[in-house]
Amino acid sequence: MYKICILWLALFCIHSTYSQQTDFKNIDFSKADNIAKSQRKSKLKDLNKLTILLTQNLDTDIEKFRAIYMWVTHNIANDHRLYKKNNRKRKKFANDSIALEEWNSKLKRELFKKLLKRKKTICTGYSYLIKEMSEIVGIEAPMVPGIGKMNELTEEDFKYPNHTWNAVKINEKWYLCDPTWASGISYPEQGRFIFDYNDGYFLSDPEIFIINHYPVDSKWSLLEKNIPAFKDFLEAPLIYGSAYNSLSKHLLPKKMHHEIMENESVKFQYVLKKEIDVNKIKFAIVTGDNESIRKPEAIKTGNNLSLQLPFKNRGFYDVHLYFDDQLIATYTVRVTK
Q1: Which of 6, 247, 280, 287 is the most exposed place for a label (fewest CB within 10 A)?
Q2: What is the pLDDT of residues 263-285, one digit of tens each?
Q3: Strands of 46-191, DSSP E
Q4: Residue-wise pLDDT tens digits, 202-244
Q5: Measured at the alpha carbon of residue 285, what is the angle toward residues 281 and 287, in degrees to the nearest 5?
Q6: With bands split at pLDDT 50, 70 and 90, how would you rate the model's confidence at 14?
Q7: CA-atom Rg of the chain in angstroms
Q8: Phi, psi of 111 (to 5 degrees)
């Protein structure tokens, strides 16, 4: 899925407090979710009125934020045509700062016009709505610009940020969320967007979030230690939306690409977010036009999951990890003699 955004530097102070969705595991979000659903036909012409309708009967900040977040992610569609147009313009004006600034100003006008009239936008519009609506009810939810990774990338691909998400302050602690990727899936070739909400991007664990979200300002990683270098971010495995529902940490392997010898194994290690059936874990191994399904050696201790996958024969393999038919991550393995 492709997303593109405008640089928007968020200059806020944060507490380096480790935060994640499980902090609110005892909160029942059904009331907030139902309120958001009841306002599905509401327009964006009066943002204050809409926000009050969403939050006035909720008692806590986390429930108010949840109602706002759920409304945005279930009602605002991703505009891939605007993404493509923006991408072309930014490449065209990459070496002309004046023309680029003029285009950015024009884009903002077009972006918010489409957002208000058609409820379609790109990531900047999603995070802007979250920020503005949250502020109406006294919740800080700054926009966070950075790099969003959904495929293999190089440093040359990122002369400027390509994505924007939000941090949110609840009960004096900071959390991370991505309303754009949570909202659904874009099909660029067909010019379609399908709403398909992913709750894994709501108050995500910072250690899983950083694999696909690299902020311009490292403080918004919400990681006190071991903030990865940009090179490490680029070399990390590909993880998908399903991973955010299943994992709180991706520990091993650190890189996507691996070289091993014949009869050696690759080790995988994760911290699980929820209970899974280890018998439903599988790897799809692709080499050339051939695909095979293999079951790994699996050891599960509490929330910790360790997998091991041996490779007997030389070759280059694309390795796709599945939990119960949900694609979690992709790696590559080159086996030499």
Answers
A1: 280
A2: 999 999 999 998 999 999 999 99
A3: 77-78, 120-121, 143-148, 163-170, 173-177, 184-187
A4: 999 999 999 999 999 999 999 987 889 999 999 999 999 999 9
A5: 175
A6: very low
A7: 21
A8: -60, -50
Residue 10 predicted with pLDDT over 60: no
Closest CA to 37 of 62, 67, 59: 67
Position 93, amino acid: F
DSSP 288: T
DSSP-based helix, strand, coil % in the chain, nearest 5: 35, 30, 35
Q: Residue 202 corresponds to which amino acid? A: F
Residue with tokens 């996958």: 309
Amino acid at 147: I
pTM of the model: 0.86
Which tokens is 243 given?
Answer: 């991973």
Coil vs helix vs strand at 49: helix
The DSSP string of 162-203 is -EEEEEEEETTEEEEE-HHHHHEEEETTTTEEEE---GGGSS
Backbone angles phi, psi at 126, to 5 degrees: -60, -55
Long-range contacts (CB closer than 8 Å, 24 or more residues apart) made by 62-66:
62/24, 62/27, 62/170, 62/171, 63/27, 63/29, 63/31, 63/32, 64/32, 64/137, 64/139, 65/134, 65/139, 65/141, 65/168, 65/170, 66/29, 66/32, 66/33, 66/36, 66/202
pLDDT digits (tens, 9 = 90+) for 64-83: 999 999 999 999 988 767 66
Q: How far is CA 15 from the centre of its chain?
A: 22
